[in-house]
Model the fold of this input.
Amino acid sequence: MSEILARFIGTGDSESLDYYNTNLLVSTQAKNLLVDCGWTAKQALRDQGLTIKDIDAIFITHVHGDHVFGLERFGFESRYVHGGHRIKLYACESVLDPLWNECLKGCMGYSSDGKNELDDFFDIVPVSERFFWNGLGFEVFPTTHTVGKPSFGVRLPGRFTFTADTNAIPELSLIVQDDPYVFHDVYVSGDTHPAHATALELKRLYPSDLLGRIYAVHYGDDIMEQTHKLEGFAGWVRQGALFEW
Ligand SMILES: [Zn+2]
Ligand SMILES: [Zn+2]
Done:
């Protein structure tokens, strides 16, 4: 039996309706870590036969709706519907501050219990370069996504690297080392984008060895018409596809 499972409960870009938000579920020893929690996360989990109560921890890569808007539901429902189920919330300090003060506070700052802080809903675990969850050691690295907005990728050494949202990362070969799976944000609907790597850019910038390990995620609903752009890549991740170690 596999010790570690990874599956994307969604693989779409921020506009996608067909593939849900790009959120990654990592499972080991009967516990589940969600990497990012967008506005489709609850429904996407249901499609995998899971509920909010099945989630033990969440790591947040950056503050965009398709990566954090699900937290309002996960916070309220774990606290008030699932009997005080506590989810661990991992994120870098530079993400935690805007996550609460500029994103969630408006809808979660007050409830029937009165004034709330983020730790009334989640067990917060600030992260710098790495974090440990349920026996697994993850590494975190900065990415270049939106100007002025901190964003991070995450790596489970020897298993996978997940860039989350990013432009091309020139030093990515050094980061991923020999990881067999590199899940990378790839915009396929056009050849330029200010905030997301395009297939054309990655082909130009990355060595073929790295490109051959890259599985595209965070693509548009037109992916079926754009797969020819992914020649030289390992492929693209289907929603719900399982990776095992
Ligand atoms: Zn996104
Ligand atoms: Zn984003």
In short: The first strand starts at residue 4 and ends at 10. The mean pLDDT is 97. Residues 14, 22, 64, 66-67, 165, 218 surround zinc ion (ligand 1) (CB under 6 Å). The radius of gyration is 17 Å.
